[in-house]
């Protein structure tokens, strides 16, 4: 049978490595209502090739939505509609870099972004992190050595570490970008999934510097299947991106999905759905965290998340997450081993667990199985 969804889950295995919500959480009714609203307008323009920067009315209502959510002004002229963050990142690489250029990434970082950078033949250099996210103080020496063209960061509820960059570090990073003429590409998909302590303003607040592109996505706040997102940047940067051959050939990306998202915002369906997501993830994060605390006597530790999808665990000294995964599969649980997120394979003592897909009871059972696997590994010669 041909597949319909990207992820295939093994029966009987709790897949804590999967990084998306369960099907039952997706907004079927909301998008049915949005679809009926859009098609009832007797305006077929959203079925045509779209404007290069994306659907104009969506850019307007999205600017208003982001202004409310971010607490800062966002201009429609500063938004380009993308085919999600992955496509946006590919587009930025295509138009702002050349093969052989250097891109800085956090170590650890979103592992699938590394493939996009390598597709563009960029040299990837990992940057040190601590409990407060990217260690900006270490950057000047690394900038002098490598002269990056881009710096890719996930500043809020980072994937996979869950850390959030402070206001002071954000400001210092923008100053360094201005001084050394590199572009900060901020992947801000988890900023709106905050359910704990409020983070600093998103990097959208600094697009006026000319050195920042802020990437957002409806995948995390509405539905991944829309394949729809946005780039927030200065109009000159957006015009450069829109000159890409793919966009010039076919026009703006995902006009049909854009029409549905537009109606979801206009009908005020997105705001309450987003609040529902935050409430659900808050409880699931709590359940996973409480379960992981029971493994503290085994030497496992973690930082409680304030948003996003993930908990990044630190394993006892001498325990490698790849070896633990082999043992975990035998007892029916999986996760993402740490080195998958590290360009230099420096994260072997860590692992990423996701709480977005499963309910609270399944998360607790998954941790019970993880503890069983860890006990077996610690007891082995």
From TrEMBL:
<keyword id="KW-0663">Pyridoxal phosphate</keyword>
<comment type="similarity">
    <text>Belongs to the class-I pyridoxal-phosphate-dependent aminotransferase family.</text>
</comment>
<dbReference type="InterPro" id="IPR015422">
    <property type="entry name" value="PyrdxlP-dep_Trfase_small"/>
</dbReference>
<keyword id="KW-0032">Aminotransferase</keyword>
<comment type="subunit">
    <text>Homodimer.</text>
</comment>
<dbReference type="GO" id="GO:0047536">
    <property type="term" value="F:2-aminoadipate transaminase activity"/>
</dbReference>
<dbReference type="InterPro" id="IPR015421">
    <property type="entry name" value="PyrdxlP-dep_Trfase_major"/>
</dbReference>
<dbReference type="InterPro" id="IPR015424">
    <property type="entry name" value="PyrdxlP-dep_Trfase"/>
</dbReference>
<feature type="domain" description="Aminotransferase class I/classII large">
    <location>
        <begin position="12"/>
        <end position="370"/>
    </location>
</feature>
<dbReference type="GO" id="GO:0030170">
    <property type="term" value="F:pyridoxal phosphate binding"/>
</dbReference>
<protein>
    <submittedName>
        <fullName>PLP-dependent aminotransferase family protein</fullName>
    </submittedName>
</protein>
<dbReference type="Pfam" id="PF00155">
    <property type="entry name" value="Aminotran_1_2"/>
</dbReference>
<dbReference type="InterPro" id="IPR004839">
    <property type="entry name" value="Aminotransferase_I/II_large"/>
</dbReference>
<keyword id="KW-0808">Transferase</keyword>
